[in-house]
């Protein structure tokens, strides 16, 4: 396929996403007000507690098997790498821009967590549905793509509600303590690394407490203890969010043959349960995309984030991470960690080039910190994703074929 053909294949799913987002934005304007603040709140709760868990469970139950999980073992590692590199780059951005304490967690979270679920659910089926798609027939493309997307959604949800949740929680707590100079958000990212490095210091440094100063060992203990205390104080209900529970149920059904035969398939005795879950899950993508569009209207009306910070997040998510993603996936393929399936490699690369996860907005609302700023960040990152995602998708397609 030529460059223009690849570009058109990559452009179509992005245009569909933009159209759905535009509909949500229009429905939120004051004259129409079908997606006002109350309606968005209620719809978001329905998506969070009903639609999204059903979608996760249905997708995973149908597509995941033991063999599939063995073949895709690198995907959870790949996603973890995106989170770690993104959070490090976000921390560097915070240091460079000298962002306020209340925005530290938001910036790091937006750089770390990409939209690994809803956006892929639009992009991959749209590419498979294109007549000139390079991944083969629609049925084959969708069978593989559904497995990749479902695992991506499930793993991403677990990382967001554990790793990113901790960072944003620490930042929210820190914003209520303006008198302290050091950032606990930074400590939460580098505390383990600091402890390892400090353990190699010389004995006089460790014994400096004799002179009346606090020893390096004591500082490490205090920081590590503070980090562990915060982790223990996390609301475990958030770690076991409905999406995570739905993912766990789907995994169990998928890998246990007896359960799969009972629930999945035209001849399954309990297929009505699976069919109901599949129907409810099908409402996730359009509802979430409409909510995204409605939330962007709030970003149009507020400008509480500096232009430098917004540009920095865009550079991290749409320049630095995709470039690193190409190197990481190609290296993994070279060393045999990733097979030769072009669609699998494409999805792995695409995970590095996505805009911030919409769950970041949910977490910011939960802690009531940086809500308006989050809307502004989402507005500009999702506006830029129209161009960036199309260009990177075209390049990724060219690289894997």
Core attributes:
401 residues; mainly alpha; Na+/H+ antiporter like fold; 0% strand
CATH architecture: Up-down Bundle
Count of discrete alpha- or pi-helical segments spanning 4 or more residues: 19
Number of domains: 1
Biggest pleated sheet: none
Q: Tell me the radius of gyration.
A: 22 Å
Measured distance between first and last alpha carbons: 9 Å
Large-scale geometry: globular
Number of E strands: 0
Q: Approximately how much helix is present in the residues?
A: over 70%
Report the order of strands and helices.
HHHHHHHHHHHHHHHHHHH
How much of the sequence is in beta strands? under 5%
Q: Structural class per helix/strand content? A: mainly alpha
- Please identify the top-level CATH class: Mainly Alpha
CATH T-level fold name? Na+/H+ antiporter like fold
Structure, explained:
- It is a single chain.
- This protein has a single domain (3-160, 241-400), classed as Na+/H+ antiporter like fold (Up-down Bundle), CATH 1.20.1530.
- It is 78% helix and 0% strand.
- It is built from 19 helices and no strands.
- The protein has helices at 3-28, 37-63, 66-71, 74-97, 101-112, 118-129, 138-175, 184-198, 203-206, 216-232, 236-239, 242-255, 257-263, 271-281, 284-301, 307-334, 342-350, 359-367, 371-400.
- α2 packs across α7 and α17 packs antiparallel against α19.
- The longest helix is centred in the middle third of the chain and has 38 residues, at 138-175.
């Amino acid at each position: 396929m030529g460059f223009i053909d690849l570009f058109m294949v990559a452009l179509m799913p992005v245009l569909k996403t933009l159209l759905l987002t535009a509909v949500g934005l229009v429905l939120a304007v004051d004259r129409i007000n079908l997606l006002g603040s109350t309606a968005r709140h209620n719809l978001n709760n329905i998506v969070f507690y009903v639609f999204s868990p059903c979608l996760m469970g249905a997708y995973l139950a149908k597509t995941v098997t033991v063999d599939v999980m063995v073949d895709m073992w690198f995907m959870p590692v790949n996603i973890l790498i995106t989170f770690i590199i993104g959070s490090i780059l976000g921390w560097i951005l915070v240091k460079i821009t000298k962002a306020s304490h209340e925005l530290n967690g938001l910036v790091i979270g937006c750089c770390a967590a990409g939209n690994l679920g809803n956006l892929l659910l639009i992009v991959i089926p749209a590419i498979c549905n294109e007549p000139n798609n390079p991944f083969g027939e629609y049925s084959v493309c969708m069978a593989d793509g559904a497995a990749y997307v479902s695992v991506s959604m499930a793993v991403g949800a677990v990382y967001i509600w554990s790793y990113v949740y901790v960072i944003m929680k620490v930042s929210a707590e820190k914003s209520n303590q303006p008198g302290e100079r050091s950032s606990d958000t930074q400590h939460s990212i580098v505390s383990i690394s600091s402890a390892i490095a400090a353990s190699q210091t010389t004995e006089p440094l460790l014994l400096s407490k004799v002179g009346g100063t606090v020893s390096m060992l004591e500082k490490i203990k205090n920081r590590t203890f503070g980090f562990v205390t915060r982790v223990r104080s996390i609301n475990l209900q958030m770690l076991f969010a409905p999406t995570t529970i739905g993912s766990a149920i789907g995994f169990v059904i998928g890998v246990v043959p007896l359960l799969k035969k009972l629930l999945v398939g035209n001849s399954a005795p309990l297929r009505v349960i699976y069919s109901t879950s599949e129907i409810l899950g099908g409402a996730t993508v359009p509802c979430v995309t409409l909510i995204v569009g409605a939330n962007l209207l709030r970003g149009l009306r507020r400008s509480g984030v500096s232009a430098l910070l917004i540009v920095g997040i865009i550079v991290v998510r749409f320049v630095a991470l995709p470039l690193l993603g190409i190197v990481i996936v190609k290296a993994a393929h070279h060393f045999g960690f990733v097979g030769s399936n072009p669609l699998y490699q494409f999805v792995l690369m695409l995970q590095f080039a996505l805009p911030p996860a919409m769950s970041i907005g949910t977490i910011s609302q939960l802690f009531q910190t940086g809500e308006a700023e989050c809307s502004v960040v989402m507005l500009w990152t999702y506006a830029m994703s129209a161009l960036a995602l199309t260009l990177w998708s075209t390049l990724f397609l060219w690289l894997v074929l």
